[in-house]
Amino acid sequence: MTRVFIYGTLKKGQPNYNVMVDTTKGRTKFLGRARTVEKYPLVIAGKYNIPFLLKVPGQGQRIQGEIYSVDDPMLKFLDWFEKCPQMYQRTPVLLKVEEWVGEGEEAPQVGSTTEALMYSTTTYKPEWLQYPTFDCYDAYGDHGLLYVKREARD
Ligand code: PCA
Question: Whose C-alpha in 3, 40, 137, 151 is 20 to 30 A from the C-alpha of 65?
Answer without folding.
Answer: 151
